[in-house]
Amino acid sequence: MAPAPSVGWAFFPLDEQLGLVSGGVTPRGEEMLVRLASWMPFEQAREFLQDLVGIQVSKATARRATLATGEAALVVCEGEVERLKQEVPQAPGGADQQLLSADGAMVHLVGGEWAEVKTLVMGEVTRNKRGEVCTRQISSFSRLCEAERFAEAALVETHRRGLERAAEVCAVQDGAEWLQGLVDYHRADAVRILDFAHAAEYVNEIGQAVQAAGGRLPPTWLTGLLHRLKHQGPARVLKHLAWLAARYPSPLIQEKLAYLQKRATHMQYPTYQEAGWPIGSGSVESANKGVIEARLKGAGMRWGRQNVNPMLVLRNAVCNRQWNETWRTSVAQRQALRTHRRQAASQQRLTRAFWMLVFWGARVYRLSHPPVPASPSMTAEALAEQPTRRLGAGYSWRKPFLRRPPSPPPVPEGPGAKKEKAPLLTLSQKGSLRL
């Protein structure tokens, strides 16, 4: 027996009544599968689901359900961004002092390409029981996109956290240019702080370059210089580094020194600490490792570019403890998309049936109304209406169109008969014939 031909996609009414979006898996089972796949690779998520609740699915099913959920959640987020940009609603209330920090982490894509995933971290700045400055209620937002697009997409998180209504905001990060544009977009009045560890790294590289050039530095040189930078500010530190750069000229030393001198206003660490601001960006560094690299940078992992952002949406949801809301909106989006596809397929079938009826209606009309043969009178009239035949090409206007009439037969002359002459035909100048 030959296999039955495929008839295309179909929608089973019971699936919609039960809320099945993937088919074959209950809504609760699919939610557990997608949530597990947001924490671990697809194969491990499949095994955990089978061990925990006894539901058996394939790795392909786990991957398909997870990415479909992430794509739906991404569509919802993008729609929310457009709504915020057009309506500009008032942000909900948040903490009075908030932290804003951003950084990037590299992810390996299919084909050997590496791409930077940008992450924004927000939190409430407060003090612990010992009076130390700390950050709590930390949330993250990650996307694989350009800097300008990332700043707009982050509106979802900054609006949810009430960044606009915060009394004071600090931005602790490195000195990358795109980070300054991010701060300008969301809170241009934020206190900008160069990450202390980042500044210390530049100071250390200058010291290593000086030693490579033959200079001798005390063993406690770096420790003492960083202590002075942290508690006294950058003035004397930059002056000392400029003296080293003049004594040991090097393009590398000049480059590192210019970087620090350009950001001297962002290294007022004594003032920041006195105001109760953190001076380190450890929160965003932790987010890069715990949110991005823990799931997307495993051994041997290669991601398609189109699959990175859907997975990042799910990672942000589980790490920010926003899973329930994200799952609910993504399921609603998937069901709406399914309904739209069903309506489009139904409309396409109706259109095809309509034109099929039109075609067969025309065929039936032609078969039931044969052509009527023409009558003889009509044929005579048609022949009478034919145009007069034109002269052939062999006709010449130079030939005379008046001929001499033939002579009458000779009449026998009798005796005494009078002989008459035949009349001559002449043509006047105006073409009139005279006799």
Commentary on this structure:
- The protein has 435 residues and is α/β, with parallel strands linked by helices.
- The protein folds into 3 domains: 13-84 and 322-348, no CATH class; 91-195 and 280-305, Nucleotidyltransferase, domain 5; 196-274, no CATH class.
- Helices cover 52% and strands 12% of the residues.
- The chain has helices at residues 13-18, 27-39, 42-53, 59-87, 147-153, 155-160, 177-186, 196-212, 221-232, 235-247, 251-262, 269-274, 282-296, 305-319, 323-368, 376-384, and strands at 97-108, 114-127, 133-143, 168-173, 191-194, 426-427, 433-434.
- The strands form 2 sheets. The protein has a 5-stranded mixed sheet. A two-stranded antiparallel ribbon has the order 6-7.
- Helix 8 (196-212) runs antiparallel to helix 11 (251-262) and helix 13 packs across helix 14.
- The longest helix is centred in the C-terminal third of the chain and has 46 residues, at 323-368.
- The chain is elongated.
- The N and C termini lie far apart (104 Å).
- The model is unreliable at 417-435 (pLDDT under 50).
Set down the secondary structure blueprint:
Elements lengths: L12 H6 L8 H13 L2 H12 L5 H29 L9 E12 L5 E14 L5 E11 L3 H7 L1 H6 L7 E6 L3 H10 L4 E4 L1 H17 L8 H12 L2 H13 L3 H12 L6 H6 L7 H15 L8 H15 L3 H46 L7 H9 L41 E2 L5 E2 L1
Determine the CATH topology of the largest domain: Nucleotidyltransferase, domain 5
Kindly estimate the percentage of residues that lie in beta strands according to DSSP. 5-15%
Q: N-to-C terminal Cα separation, in Å?
A: 104 Å
What form results from the Cα inertia axes? elongated
Q: What is the ordering of alpha helices and beta strands?
A: HHHHEEEHHEHEHHHHHHHHHEE
**Total of helices:** 16
Query: Residue ranges: pLDDT <50 for 5 or more in a row?
Result: 417-435
| Class by alpha and beta content | alpha/beta
